[in-house]
Design goal:
With 144 residues, the protein is α+β, with helices and mostly antiparallel strands. The protein is 46% helix and 12% strand. Keywords: Cytoplasm, Redox-active center.
């Protein structure tokens, strides 16, 4: 990508390129973003989607565990922001980024207070240990 950014007129018209004595390289020369770069960009997108929201759940509309976790959290009076990855643009890329962040399976993925809690096993474990409600309280998701 650096060679493209340093080369003036690279993305301009071919007449502009020829006036600069550049020859257009074969298509195989043009650098494409790596999967790691795309994943980093998508992880940044996940961070922005989670920012300033007490509870965020990344879900799939057809996933029964996603439904269960949403029901559990809303049952405490929380109003989570829910992203249905099978219904939004870039859903597959977001799901890959969640896997890179350690969510396995990738949905449901729960963030409380901008912190990744994890999937259904982690959420249910917190519930069994009576630690889920205090987390929701600290995040400002519920009030007692």
């Amino acid at each position: 990508m650096d060679s493209i950014n340093r080369c003036p007129g690279w993305l301009g018209s071919s007449s502009r390129l020829s006036s600069l004595n550049f020859k257009i390289p074969p298509k195989s020369f043009i650098a494409l973003p790596s999967i790691d770069l795309l994943c980093c960009i998508t992880m940044e997108m996940v961070t922005r989607m989670v920012a300033s929201r007490p509870v965020v759940i990344f879900s799939r509309s057809t996933c029964c565990m996603s439904h269960t976790i949403k029901t559990l959290i809303t049952g405490f009076g929380a109003n989570p922001t829910v992203y249905e990855l099978d219904e939004i643009q870039n859903g597959q890329q977001i799901e890959m980024a969640l896997q890179q962040m350690g969510c396995k399976p990738s949905v449901p993925a729960v963030f409380i207070g901008e912190q990744l809690i994890g999937g259904p096993n982690q959420v249910m474990s917190l519930q069994v240990k009576n630690q889920l409600v205090p987390l929701l309280l600290r995040a400002g998701a519920i009030w007692i």
